[in-house]
Design brief:
396 residues, alpha/beta, VC0802-like, Rossmann fold, 2 domains, 7-stranded mixed β-sheet, disordered N terminus, disordered C terminus
Length: 396
């Protein structure tokens, strides 16, 4: 077998996975963090870096689901080739036999009749390596593995990586309470960044639910990493884990603020949801500065200053609501009560979005979980531009 130098500080191929439609958004975040050489992939971006970058990005990145480090990349001509190549890796140098592991990924290859089979082949190669060298084997845990590998096969091209995040990075660690239809934290962070919010204009979510959008906006505005409360990272279970380096990165991260650079406001018709929002906010230093109230959106008023609205209203998928009526009222409220504002709305309801009665100036296809959604920008003007924006929306 050939040895794989996982502890080397030579450049690693680091892949950051994201949700569909947010590749460019993730790339822009990486540029802001100082990474300028970026390769865009399908639902992912790739950079080169070191293990220090892996640790840093697991803490600081907001728009990625997981961070993979490539272990090996090769080509095969048959099923047997996959085992032979995988058996050529010293798996015992990557993790120890007392750690549980699992393999996930995707297979798009005519070489395999059963797309699940390659995962079994890789599992056998890993187990056989330990048996041959150490006369022991690690156990598999499909639900909560300590070490997670990613197998990607496209025709005859194979990439094996280690998932350094483990649990998806949207499991931030700060959310104690959730609503009936919570927005994924990574999706929320990605929507905020994609919207172009300047982090100084007053930010409002009139359907705040359990507060995910508000919290991610506050994290972004303050510069505090969204994962500051998260404790579990799979890279801590690898043999090359550098605890001192991680403690330096984590210890130097900002976590305390005495004010917000702008107002962040949330409301919801449900007092139960506002209570959940406040509970989720209480562990953060900025929590007391985020203003929340129990109000239906159409009773929320604004001052003369410009307002930035980003919200995730009910779609009618998991919560029973008269969607056309709700969105019609939303559009009326925006036109008459929220002038001189910019509003971004994510929804899977095409009927609802049409009922708003405003023409969007921008729209993007995104996903919230398995739901295909549209993320739309509405510029709400007063005076001469008002009529232009009151045109009924017709599909382009």
């Amino acid at each position: 077998m050939k040895s794989k130098e996982t502890t080397s500080e030579s450049e690693l191929k680091i892949t950051l996975k994201c949700f569909f439609g947010f590749e460019q958004t993730l790339g822009e975040e990486l540029i802001e963090l100082g990474y300028d050489k970026i390769e865009f992939l399908n639902r992912a971006v790739r950079i080169n870096g070191s293990w220090e970058d892996v640790y840093f990005l697991n803490l600081y990145i907001r728009c990625a689901i997981s961070i993979l480090v490539e272990i090996e990349h090769f080509f095969i001509k048959s099923e047997d080739d996959l085992y032979k190549k995988a058996a050529g890796i010293y798996w015992n140098e990557i993790f120890s036999a007392n750690k549980t592991f699992a393999i996930k990924g995707a297979v798009f290859s005519t070489l395999f009749k059963n797309t699940h089979y390659p995962f079994l082949v890789l599992k056998d190669a890993i187990v056989d390596c330990f048996r041959e060298i150490q006369n022991e084997r690690p156990n598999i845990d499909l639900k909560k593995p300590q070490v997670l590998f990613d197998l990607y096969i496209k025709e005859n091209e194979v990439t094996i990586s280690v998932n350094t995040s483990g649990l998806p990075l949207f499991q931030r660690g700060y959310r104690e309470e959730v609503g009936e239809a919570p927005l994924n934290e990574v999706v929320a962070a990605s929507l905020i960044r994609q919207s172009g919010w300047d982090r100084t204009t007053t930010f409002m979510d009139p359907f705040c639910g359990s507060g995910t959008i508000l919290i991610e906006a506050a994290f972004l505005a303050t510069g505090i990493p969204s994962n500051i409360e998260r404790q579990h990272y799979a890279f801590k279970n690898l043999n090359n884990y550098d605890e001192k380096l991680w403690n330096e990165i984590y210890g130097s991260a900002p976590r305390i603020v005495r004010s917000l650079p702008c107002e962040i406001i949330g409301s919801d018709i449900s007092d139960e949801m506002i209570l959940k929002t406040r509970r989720n906010l209480r562990s953060m230093s900025f929590g007391r500065f985020v203003k929340t109230s129990v109000l239906p959106f159409d009773q929320v008023t604004k001052t003369e200053e410009k307002l930035f609205i980003l919200t995730n209203p009910p779609y009618g998928e998991r919560m029973e609501t008269d969607i056309p009526e709700l969105y019609d009222t939303l559009g009326t409220w925006m036109k008459h009560s929220m002038t001189n504002s910019e509003a971004w709305i994510i929804s899977s309801s095409e009927e609802g979005l049409k009922s708003i009665g405003l023409k969007p100036t921008k729209k993007t296809k995104v996903f919230n979980g398995d739901l295909e959604c549209s993320f739309r920008k509405f510029e709400i003007y007063d005076g001469s531009k008002k009529a232009k924006n009151e045109e009924s929306y017709s599909e382009e």
